Amino acid sequence: MPFDDELVELTVSSINALRGIALAAHIPPPLEDSPKCPRCSLVGICLPDEVRFLNRPAVEPRPLFPALQNALPLYVQSPRAFVRKDGDVFVIEVEKEKAAEARVVEVSQVALFGSTMLSASALHECVRRNIPVSWHTYGGWFVGHTIGTGHHNVETRTFQYQASFDSKKCLQLARGWVAAKIANCRTLLRRNWRGRSGFENDDAPEESGDEESGSSASQAPPELLTALREDAAHAAKAPSMEVLLGIEGAAASRYFQNFSALLKSDTDPTMNFDFMGRNRRPPKDPVNALLSFAYSMLTREWTITLSGVGLDPYKGFYHQPRFARPALALDMMEPFRSLIADSVVLMAINNGEIRPTDFIRAAGSCNLTDSGRKRFIAAFERRMQQEVTHPIFKYRLSYRRLLEVQARLLIRYLSGEIEEYPNFVTR
Ligand code: SF4
Fold this sequence. Notes:
There is one protein chain. The chain has three domains: 31-65, no CATH class; 72-146, CATH 3.100.10.20; 157-414, Four Helix Bundle (Hemerythrin (Met), subunit A) (Up-down Bundle). The longest helix is centred in the middle third of the chain and has 26 residues, at 167-192. The protein has helices at 5-23, 43-46, 48-55, 120-128, 154-164, 167-192, 222-236, 241-257, 286-309, 327-333, 336-350, 370-385, 399-414, and strands spanning 72-76, 81-86, 89-94, 97-103, 107-113, 117-118, 133-136, 142-146, 359-362, 365-368, 387-389, 396-398. Helices cover 44% and strands 13% of the residues. The chain is an alpha/beta fold. It is built from 13 helices and twelve strands.
């Protein structure tokens, strides 16, 4: 290649143009319908088709090609467990005896319960490889998480903080989350209704909140479904946060008053679960213990997802900031409470994976036993890996991947690339 003045000039101007883009501190808009995108390693971050579709819904987005997800979360819950690193393997010891091991490359996150310990070398490895470590109380309450130096794209957090002081934007986001939450609760009731007085269908499909689950044989009361539909419509137009909180509270009370109608009853009455309404801190009965634990796991998933894409999980728009409260994680999980957490509780109870004998009661609180928690965690992981069709983009992806897509769409909204944050609502 001739190394002439023209080439030098082209090279210098290209470098200057690149520097100009970097200095502008604003990501350029994605390419339009480019053949480069489907094979680009950034496509799952950039979401070019999704952004274009949301702005001009003419051509459906091409399916995402998510990175291979061979890595899985590593849960360690034995109070006497110690996790150390040996070469490229995490070794889990209980009272100095090796209990299990997991290859480092096959671990996506580490979740530790109670007084489980992690060696400094294992922690360094996690931090180096961006493997989040989350810490939980023995009962499963999410205490916090450890990450490395954090996401480098500070611009994303700047957009987030700016928007968090814009009361109009806060209300717009909050309305969408609450309306989507109520709509998804309504769908769960509609699809999984067993009804105490209605007949029960032992061949009913697996309980879940998505459109793949089919319908339950028993019908939910139409007046309940109408009331929830109206709650969702009112939430979408709420004039203030105070009004929105009131609508959310009324809808939650309607939903939980009827939640027991989704539970299967056993011919042996001692194997039945009673649910009289929501209580927490501490949960006083098995269903509330399961719901609290599932919400805690979902909070952890959202906290890790948000910090992984560069958002600050502690600065929310609907939930007010409070010390150690992952407000944005709580905001984002609103539409997913019924779809993921409540749905896992229903599956675990109605499939017989969790039974009333899997709980310990002490000092007015109720908690899962070790073996019960292990089975419930497995049910939660199954749900996170379950694929669902995105109602807007029409392609299939796992719930875990879906959380990341929604988090990246929130960034697009905060940066002004799309007009509205599209919530995930099942039919
Ligand atoms: S996915 Fe984004 S970064 Fe990759 S080629 Fe397309 S527009 Fe460019």
